[in-house]
Specification:
It is a single chain. By secondary structure, the chain is α/β, with parallel strands linked by helices. It has 7 helices and 15 strands. The strands form 4 sheets. The protein has a 5-stranded parallel beta sheet with strand order 2-1-3-4-5, with helices on both faces. Strands 10-9-8-12-11 form a 5-stranded antiparallel beta sheet, with no helix packed on it. Helix 1 links the parallel strand 1 and strand 2. It starts with a strand and ends in a 12-residue tail after the last strand. The model has no long low-confidence stretch (mean pLDDT about 85).
Length: about 250
Amino acid sequence: MTIRGLIAEDEAPQREDLCTKLRAYWPELQLVAACENGSEALEAVSQCRPQVAFLDIRMPGASGLDVACAVAETGGLVVFTTAYDEYAIQAFEAGAIDYLLKPIQDTRLQQSVARLRQRLAEPAGDLVARLQQLSQNLEMTRSTQIRWITASVGDSVRMFDIDEVIYFQAHEKYVRVMTGSGEVAIRTPLKELIAGLDPDTFWQVQRGIVVRVSAIERLRKNELGKFELVLKQRKEVLPVGSSYAQRFRGM
């Protein structure tokens, strides 16, 4: 039986990659729309009434949550894609909504497809109510995002605006906070820091490195064929993990 599906993702390489993988892993899925922003997705939902929608949670125009509510109101199922947002992931896991963490792994996508196939025969229930609660949770997350970094330096305490930070790097029991003029070390675990950072502003590029996107000058390959980042305000070059390189397509 053919299933109507919709994709909404504002980054073209990721949108095209997801379309290709879904065609391979779910032949019965007919992609009726592949949208590059939330407003376009809302119009497509109204016209095509997809049974399944894969939605980037943060897009230009209407948000992924706005589109998800429209899909849910027609009885459709929703899968969110997200770069990193620990609070959002916890909310997804607590309910019936699935999520895919970027960069999307093949095995995880296959698991999501299998879950959707099972749930298509089930009623949507209170999905709209859960989406509304999720929206409230995300608003609370944004209100608690880190604005200042406090670090002990000798016998004094220094404060850095988050806008000064170029990147964070886990190092033994500390996290190095690198700015344009120097560095300090803090004890806050990197995982805890990530939960308080804006995922549109800071990207994780290695298991132990999170960098400000606007501080990146370019992505290049070294002599070993590995990706690395050249920064605008610092001389060191940062390695990019193979599982994180996909998000730089199109840069």
